[in-house]
Write a structure and sequence with these properties.
The chain has six helices and 16 strands. It is an alpha+beta fold. Strands 1, 2, 4, 5, 7, 12, 13, 14 and 16 form a nine-stranded antiparallel beta sheet that branches. Strands 3-6-15-8-9-10-11 form a seven-stranded antiparallel beta sheet, with no helix packed on it. GO terms for molecular function: carbohydrate binding.
């Protein structure tokens, strides 16, 4: 039984391997940095047009300037019917929304400058479009879609070609940490598009975007990439374009033979470059003997490592800040609990009665202070401060009235002219001075009481004593009565003197 299962598995694996196509890398239809351009700023087997800018690392199809178009096309038409291409690119911009987008082409003839993402309309072949701008205001961009045109249809920009597409998927490909990878496969009339969203550095982290059957493409065509900007602008950089031909099982792989003259030319160029490199190394060793040791590539930090280090440092900084905030929050919570415990211990907390389910040796729990009790304490303190201010105002009024009475008595003393009345006036002045001195002392005590800082103590127990407000009001009334009596008595004495 085990042998039968094993034989079935082996036969299934052989059948699957026999049905898979053979893959061959096509270097004449590919490019990849570094050392992308030659001395004359050209790219082997490729040509770029429009506003495209070629550098040693990548090709910038369009810079982040408004109304720019650019493209890069392979010089030679593909001689294989089935293919798999992988395009590595980055779309970066300052704005939250970008424009217009990028397109990958496989057309019967080379494209020219036009309105469809930097290439011409009415093309004949395949276009995989990465649309950044939402023209139809449906909030469905950035969007990836595939189109096949037979050369008779125009691209509908007003609705982003939604009625013409074979399929698509909604993926955000702008401003990603790692480059975007798009893999387009066409095999046995089946078109498949895979997308690596650039969230990780894993090159094989692809996800299916679309799969369409019964797709008719030209048997021979040109590969290309184009891009365009409009009112908004993004940088569209292509880092690599890798092409593989797919040969169905049973067919012979056609080996492309290099012409003898071309082979000799390449060998001569390689030998010359090798000699120049060795000569440069030798001259450097003679000029710098202390720095002539071998330096490996592992001692240099690449762009990816630098970006990863920056991200790691930023994450560490964020983690440290969050940790410090957490410590500070813990300290605040601890202080709050300490204050609440002290307030509850100082306040007259109500003890929780011991229930029937408690044991005899269990300690009696004391209820902690509640929020409304704390608010009541604060309200009572505010009321006490308000009453103290009222008492202070009342004392100021009494002092003012006493001063007015004293000035009136001084005028009476000047108008009386008698010796007997002078002794009485001096006695009244002495009494009034004593009253003013006592009032100043009381006022100073009240001022100190008002200016004392708030102490988080509990309210004192209620007693049967007279309240401070009633006490000071009674003192004020007594003072008014005494002063009035003295004035009345002085006036009576003055009338008696005039009578005699």
């Amino acid at each position: 039984m085990f042998l039968q299962v094993l034989l079935c598995c082996i036969s299934a694996l052989l059948f699957v391997n026999a049905s898979l196509p053979k893959i061959k890398f096509e270097y004449k239809y590919s490019f990849k940095g570094p050392h992308l351009i030659q001395a004359d700023r050209s790219i082997p087997f490729w040509e770029y047009t429009g506003d495209a800018i070629a550098s040693d690392e990548n090709i910038r199809i369009t810079p982040s300037l408004r109304s720019k178009r650019g493209a890069v096309w392979c010089k030679n038409p593909a001689t294989f019917e089935h293919f798999s291409i992988e395009v590595v690119f980055k779309v970066t911009g300052r704005g939250r929304v970008g424009a217009d987008g990028l397109a990958i082409w496989f057309t019967e003839s080379k494209g020219i400058d036009g309105p469809v993402f930097g290439s011409n309309d009415y093309w004949k072949g395949l276009a995989v479009i990465f649309d950044s701008f939402d023209n139809d205001a449906q909030h469905n961009n950035p969007y990836i879609s595939a189109f096949v045109n037979d050369g008779t249809h125009t691209f509908e920009h007003q609705n982003d070609g939604s009625t013409q597409q074979l399929g698509g998927c909604l993926r955000d490909f702008r401003n990603k940490q790692f480059p975007i990878r798009a893999k387009v496969e066409y095999y046995e009339k089946v078109l498949t598009v895979f997308i690596n969203s650039g969230l990780t550095n894993n090159k094989d982290d692809f996800e299916l975007c679309l799969r369409v059957e019964n797709v008719q493409l030209p048997k021979s065509g040109f590969f290309g990439v184009s891009a365009a900007t409009g009112g908004l602008a993004d940088d569209h950089d292509v880092l690599a374009f890798l092409t593989h031909s797919l040969v169905p099982p049973g067919q012979q792989v056609v080996e492309s033979k290099v012409a003898e003259e071309e082979r000799k030319k390449y060998e001569k160029e390689f030998d010359d470059y090798q000699k120049q490199l060795e000569q440069a190394k030798k001259e450097f060793q003679e000029q710098h003997p202390d720095k002539a040791k071998e330096v490996g590539n592992d001692q240099f930090v690449g762009q990816g490592e630098r970006e990863l280090q920056m991200i790691f440092e930023g994450q560490n900084l964020i983690h440290q800040v969050v940790r410090d905030l957490s410590h500070k929050l813990d300290e605040l919570l601890g202080r709050q609990e300490l204050v609440l415990s002290r307030v509850s211990s100082l306040s007259s907390g109500v003890q929780v009665p011991q229930g029937s389910g408690t044991q005899g040796g269990q300690p009696v729990m004391v209820d902690t202070i509640k929020r409304h009790e704390v608010e009541r304490i604060f309200n009572n303190h505010a009321e006490l401060l308000k009453e103290a201010r009222d008492i202070r105002t009342l004392l100021n009024d009494v002092q003012y009235k006493a001063g007015v009475i004293q000035s009136g008595l001084g005028q009476v003393h000047q108008g009386g002219g008698g010796t007997g009345g002078g002794g009485l006036t001096a006695q009244m002045s002495m009494i009034l001075h004593e009253l003013q001195e006592n009032l100043r002392n009381v006022k100073a005590d009240v001022t100190n009481l008002v200016q004392q800082p708030q102490i988080g103590t509990a309210c004192p127990p209620q007693t049967s004593c007279v309240s401070p407000v009633l006490f000071f009001v009674a003192i004020g009334i007594q003072l008014v009565i005494i002063v009035g009596y003295l004035i009345y008595r002085q006036s009576k004495d003055a009338q008696a003197k005039k009578f005699y």
